[in-house]
Amino acid sequence: MKLKMILCSLICMTLLSGCFNYQDIDRAIFSTAMIIDVNEDKNVVLYSEVFHTYRSKENNSETGTRLIFSSTGKTLFEAVRNQNKTASNKINFEQNKVIIFTKRAAEYGIDHFIDFLNRDQELLLRQYILLFEGDPKELIQLTIKQEEYLGLYIYDLVRNEIVSKFYDIFQVYEYLNNRYIGNSIEVMGILKIKEEALEDDVSIEGAGILKDGKMIEKMEPEDANIYNGMMGQGTIRLIILPHPTIQGKNITLEILDCKIQSSVTYDNDKITLKKDIKFKVSFGESEYSIDLDDPKILKKIEKEAEEQTKKRYTEFFEKYKEKGLDIFRIQEMLSRKYPHIEIKDPIEITELKLVVDLDIEGSSDVQELKRE
């Protein structure tokens, strides 16, 4: 029995043994963000933001510094290898948070790079993917006071509850799954440097439409908000309406919850895309006094909000129907419900049917606004 315990202890000591010095951690170089671009010769230009750890001899403590690496290669794999040739130790991508494709790289086709991002063992499938409109050198050299590391800042930004309600941000595994479903059209958020900001800052503004991995069109921020609202991936968080009794004034409703049920039916060479949308909203602001205890006023506001939502969604749908871009995943829904029916461009014969139900919550608890 004692011999068995000794053997078990020796095995545990062997398996659980770790670093007994700082040699390994002192050499570590961790990537936090990757920016992928292409040059005029279609070669890959890779920018990496890294955290380089080292042990300070002055105060005998561990510290680190932010470094930027850049390299070029015929493929992404070669660009990574060339980048490692200038590093004191091999760059580790296990902690990489975001992968950013420039507009030029997206138009060239991100599927040129996706195999390496999926195949490499260090690059995790949970990384976020974004597009970027602008100069990648300017982006990688930004000094953001909220967070020293660009990759960590963008990682927190896309996980921000407010941002996630406006844009659907892909992770690598989601893109890999979706590219084989339906018509291979994706809508991906675009990162931009804020020009009007007093300090260096970035935001997600609009989205890029990708067909078979190539960006074919840009979607403006307002359209991107409507798209995410229609797809149930996010909601237009605010609804601004004209004041029900005072001309020239506005009221603002905040969406607390949104539930969307989507379905398709195919009959006589016609497809109907039906969306049942239920909003729960509360009053956010009124530019002039309003009697919230008057049921007629509340009914008028609800009706106006429902009609405005129908109008915006219908106009948006018709806009992309004319372009022949099935960003609404009609083909995917159709193939699931009618697996034996094959229609090349289903959006061309699709009509949108909207059922919008808006409910104002807590109106009886809101005090009437008074203005002298």
Automatic annotation (TrEMBL):
Gene3D superfamilies: Nutrient germinant receptor protein C, domain 3. It is a lipid-anchor. InterPro entries: GerAC_N, Spore_GerAC-like, Spore_GerAC-like_C, Spore_GerAC_C_sf. Coiled coil: none annotated. Residues 21-179 form the Spore germination protein N-terminal domain. Its main location: membrane. It comes from the Bacteria. Keywords: Germination, Lipoprotein, Membrane, Palmitate, Signal. It is found in: Membrane. Belongs to the GerABKC lipoprotein family. This is Ger(X)C family spore germination protein.
